[in-house]
Task: structure prediction
Amino acid sequence: MPHLMLKDLPRYECLLDAAREFPDLDPSATEAFLHLLRTGDEAFRVAEVQLAEHDITHGRFGVLMALWGNCQREGREVPLSPAEIADRTGVTRATVTGLIDTLERAGLVARTPHSDDRRMTSVALTPRGEVVVKNILPAHFRQMAWLMSPLDEAERKTLVALLTKVLGRAAERPAITDELEPAAPRT
Result:
């Protein structure tokens, strides 16, 4: 589901007109923000189509990648707790539980009792799960390279630097809307 429900973005001139009515509207910031959302939606769609060819969703792929990436960093099989998977994938623990359930039914991951605390479980890729990840990744990497191919190396580095700035700014904003002060009404 797209985050931006606009396929055709407003022209800059329209944003300038809107800024006359809404002085807080910064036309260039709004234009950049809308393009960021629209591009993100399209990049997500491209990846979603590629993953669907392997009968997998973004959420399930995220769990598989968290587990596979953990093995790659450690150089050996190191299971993760569902809470660690939730933290690494940026989704709620309840969502991760559902994703793990689905992946376990498909034989791609296995739950085992935690080695230190029997009340907890650890999750690891099964051999079948590792094969699935290794089958998905080449096409996934080709898709990323294809999508980014209009940019040369310097442009990619600039894009990463710019997006990192925006990401840092977004991280400054509290996640819970109750923590935000409501805007003062205009008179």
Remarks:
- The domain at 56-166 is CATH 1.10.10.10 (Arc Repressor Mutant, subunit A).
- The beta strands are 109-113, 121-125.
- The mean pLDDT is 86.
- Residues 20 and 66 are 47 Å apart (CA to CA).
